[in-house]
Amino acid sequence: MVRLHFCEPHELIKSRSTLRQFEIFLNSQMAEPNAGPIIWAEDNNVSVYKDYLFMSKKGDENKQNLTINLHPKSAKYFDVILNGIEVFKLNSSNGNLAGPNPQPESSNSIGGKSKKKQKLLISGGGCAVGLLIDTPLGLYGVDYFWGGK
User: Fold this and answer.
1) Mean local confidence (pLDDT), 26-51
2) CB burial class (10 A; 0-12, 13-18, 19+) of residue 120?
3) What distance in Å separates the CA atoms of residue 145 and residue 100, rounded to the nearest whole number?
4) Do 49 and 3 touch, CB atoms closer than 8 A?
């Protein structure tokens, strides 16, 4: 289920609901042929939401794409105002919300590069700390050996 939130903020559009009308498409199928916040709420600055049900395709169940298209109709204002989108997964007839397990990411993904950077930073930091400790000890040894006793 998809819930779309709308609100018309402009005072000029209050007088005529036909000034901003549009069509709503979900996955390239028309869901609403004559949409508009003023048509639904009958006033401006009133929020309204509309719920739309759609069925996902039975194919690759690990990844589902959803397209939401809002097409303005011939009206004075061609901007479409969409204030929010909520996507809900509904349960099956037996109350089950379960789905298949997602596929694990490959080892060549971006996460692999960040681990390499992390290892490089740790080894570089270890070398720097080692130099900071060994340098004074080495200078102290040279001074002691050459007669600074």
Assistant:
1) 86
2) exposed
3) 71
4) yes
Q: Dihedrals φ, ψ of 23, to 5°? A: -110, 145
Closest listed residue to residue 80, CA positions, set 69, 93, 70, 65: 70
Q: What global pTM score does this model have?
A: 0.57
CA 51 to chain centre: 21
CA-angle at 62, arms to 67 and 110, nearest 5° = 90
Q: Nearest Cα to 49, choosing from 57, 40, 59, 60?
A: 40
d(CA 7, CA 81) in angstroms, rounded, equals: 7
Tokens of 134: 């060994």
User: Rounded distance, CA 22 to CA 61, Å?
Assistant: 31
* Spacing of C-alpha 10 from chain mean position: 28
- Does residue 113 or residue 55 have the better pLDDT? 55
| DSSP-assigned letters across all residues of 17-67 | GGGS-EEEEETTEEEEEEE-HHHHHSSSS--EEEEE--PPPSS-TT-----
* 22 or 128: which leads in pLDDT: 22
**Cross-strand pairs, 86:** 3
Size of the chain, expressed as the number of residues it contains: 149
